[in-house]
Amino acid sequence: MPLPKFKYLAPKTWEEACAMLAQYKGKVRVMAGGTDLLIKMSLGAAAPEYVIGLKNIPGLDYIKYDQTKGLTLGPLALLADVADHPMIKEKYDAVAHAASVTATVQVRNMGTVAGNICNAAPSADNIPALMALDAEVTLARLGGKRTVKLDDFFQGPGKTVMEPEELLEKITVPAPLPGSGTAYLKISPRSKVDIAAVGVGAHLVMAGDVCQMARIVLGAVAPVPMRARKAESLLTGQQLTTDLINQTAAQAADEARPITDVRTTAEYRKTMVYVLTRRAINACAQKALPPCAK
Amino acid sequence: MKHLIHLKVNGDDYELAVAPHRTLNEVLREDLALTGTKFGCGTGDCGACTVIMNGRNVSSCLTLAVEANGQDIMTIEGLAPSGQELHPIQEAFVTYGAIQCGFCTPGMIMSAKVLLDKNPNPDEPDIRAGLSGNLCRCTGYNKIVEAIEKAAHQMNQD
Q1: What is the separation of C-alpha A4 from the centre of its chain, rounded to a whole number of angstroms?
Q2: Which CATH number goes with the domain that contains B119?
Q3: Do B42 and A4 touch (CB under 8 A)?
Q4: B144 is in which domain, residue-wise?
Q5: Which of B57, B79, B101 is the C-terminal boundary of a domain?
Q6: Do B113 and B145 fall within a single domain?
Q7: pLDDT over 90 at A194, yes or no
Q8: A261: pLDDT confidence band, cut at 50, 70 and 90?
């Protein structure tokens, strides 16, 4: 369907973008890759009077790593570039993998990680991986900024704590701790290109065979991507055994609050949370081992 | 308000005045009469509208023409500019029966070109992954994969 008419704003600097957002508050949408927004607009689910295109601001697609600050993704960091980045693959493989299984080749060449977060679909592939790694976002507005943990960012399908005059300035992921392993696993009706029916992100920090820290994030089984906190607490401080992993996976399935929809049933989703959580914990434990022990 | 944009399409320069709501797909097909690029689903799922922008395959139906300003674009028409000799990927699609109704073909070939530009020796899973954003509703995938394998072989010999 053809797009409805709108006015296109092309700020040349970040400050100009913040000023435009404040000026046209409530009548404007910000566009990164456009792969979600333009579909919503053509379907009539969004009808902004103005669209701010960020692409005219140079350098927003950066991907940076610093040993103390960790990974920083600019607001236009492309899914394809995050998926293929050697450093992200090495140090944050769940993040790279989640980007690599998001949508299609073409959408990954256009869409951004920041856009996937701001679109706030419960099934968004990049969120469980980033949340499992305790990522936070910096939100900027004219004359100020704040940081919000992804844990506290989502409020419902398509709803976040972002105010209408705020822009997502960057995504920050802490540097990986020694002994950490991460994983993102998804199941969808079609192998590659479809939206996740269930996604599980996990992050374990291991000392030998004892799990020191665990974060498990479930996607597409609740109104927002959710931590399985009781499941996490079962692992913390414990020796990883097959029994404990099974028990933790069952706990995660218990915490999930899925619905039945066009993609699959609530019951299947719960069962798959069990299966994927078990696999994700095993994958994390495997990756957390020092190279000599593999 | 219309925006003045500059596009390089298949090596040719164009200056165009476009309304913001017009997509690259509409401008290519309607203003430049390059109808080789198709319009399929309009939601970035089918790949029929695939063009190459700065070396990446993208959905022209989800690209605003104003945001393509200054970019280097290749469409299916740019693969065989003389209109006489076909590109080796096109040649292989014809030879190995990889075209049925033909609607997905331009998009398939543009994705195949990006794949082979990045990876001249893809194995079958690489090809299937590279084409995973292009749907063929005649479901002739095996012949398409075979054609790309043969095209890669041919291009490595040339």
Answers
A1: 29
A2: 1.10.150.120
A3: no
A4: 88-157
A5: B79
A6: yes
A7: no
A8: confident
Please determine, for the modelled complex, whether the ipTM score is greater than 0.85: yes
Residues B75 and B94 in one domain: no
Place of tokens 């990522």: A135
Can you tell me the distance from the alpha carbon of B110 to that of B90, in angstroms, rounded to the nearest whole number?
10
Give the closest of A8, A106, A107 to B66, CB-based: A8
- Total domain count for chain B? 2
Residue numbers in A near B56 (CB within 8 A): 80, 109
> Which of A51, A105, A108, A194 is the best residue to mutate to test the B interface, defined by the most B CB atoms within 10 Å of its own CB?
A105
φ/ψ of B109, rounded to 5, equals: -70, -35
Q: Which residue, among A72, A71, A124, A69, has the nearest Cα to A99 in the 3D structure? A: A124
Contact list, A35 vs chain B (CB under 8 Å) = 44, 59, 62
On whether the A180-289 domain is CATH 3.30.390.50, my answer is: yes
Which of B58, B131, B132 minimises the CB distance to A110? B58
Single-letter amino acid code for the residue at A265 = T
Alpha helices (runs of H) in B6-140, residue ranges in sequence order:
24-26, 88-95, 105-118, 124-130
Size of interface A-B (CB pairs under 8 A): 81
Looking at the fold, whether B31 and B95 belong to one and the same domain comes out as no
Mapping DSSP to helix (H, G, I), strand (E, B) and coil, where does residue B95 land? helix
Q: Do A6 and B20 touch (CB under 8 A)?
A: yes
Locate the domains of chain A by residue range: 7-56, 63-173, 180-289
From the list A1, A5, A110, which residue is nearest B62 (CB)?
A110
Minimum CA–CA partner of B40 in chain A: A1
Domain A63-173 fold: 3.30.465
- Please report the pLDDT score of residue B83 as a whole number: 77
Cβ-nearest to A192 among B26, B111, B132: B132
For residue A34, the chain B residues in CB contact (below 8 A) are 62-64, 67
Domain A7-56 has CATH 3.30.43.10: yes
Kindly tell me if the per-residue pLDDT of A294 is higher than 60.
no
Reply yes or no on whether the pLDDT at A197 is more than 80: yes
pLDDT-based confidence at A293, cuts 50/70/90?
Answer: very low
Do the Cβ atoms of A96 and A125 come closer than 8 Å? no
Q: Do A8 and B43 touch (CB under 8 A)?
A: no
The CATH number that applies at residue B30 is 3.10.20.30
